[in-house]
Amino acid sequence: MRLADSPDTTFLDLIPLPAERPPVRAVLFDFDGTISTLREGWPEIMAPMMVEMIAGPTEPTDALRAEVAAYIDRSTGIQTIHQMAWLAETAARYGRNPDVHDAWWYKAEYLRRLKAPVEARAARVTAGAAPREAFMIAGSLALLEALRAAGLALYVASGTDHPDVAREVGLLGLGDYFVEVAGAPPDAMECSKDAVLRRLTADAGLRGPEVAVVGDGRVEIALAREVGAIALGVASDEAARQGINPAKVGKLAGAGAHAIVGDFRETDRLLAWLLHAEES
Fold it and tell me: Which of 94, 215, 219, 243 holds its CA 20 to 30 A away from the CA of 138?
């Protein structure tokens, strides 16, 4: 695995796509970390909370911190409630905190802690103090425009609660680009990404390669490969909004990504790879 061509490129071509394949007709995007950076830094909020809730009144160990970090890394992309279910199970397993709660309590507490930075960023966009692009992965708008112009149906599915995803899609002015925005049900544990993929490949009658999945989490890449879809991993540096984050590359490659990008600035190259289009 190596960076292709120039040192400025953000494209890693890992698994060749078949030369003979049907045209892509639909693209399913993850949202947080793939398009939006409104929730950038969420692991830095989740990790200390998990350590705190597991350790309780005892001193956290390096082993505990490492276990939490490893879990967050491999669970990126799943619904928050599943991450909080792991927290509840782990707190009970360690037995160091006498005050163990259920997954729903932990989810509410995590969202309470995450709310402040997200709302501060949202307020800047709403007030006009920052452009919407300041909280989007570089090249997102150009790619969405190009895919829409090519006649593809675009979808968003996220592990974040549906009302929050819908609001943040609207805040960034992206609602008109998507046929459907699907977040996690706030009071259930169903997987929105799996549900949308199954509808596209089963109910809508699209064959696997007619669907492309774009995301920065191992979960959506693995789901894409499971149904035979094209998988584009996004190893995004959410703080910088551009360039490849090496920490994400390995997990996306391990999940089976056909290619990996750090951002979407190389729009023509992405279109050529995805749609058999000619680079302009």
Answer: 219
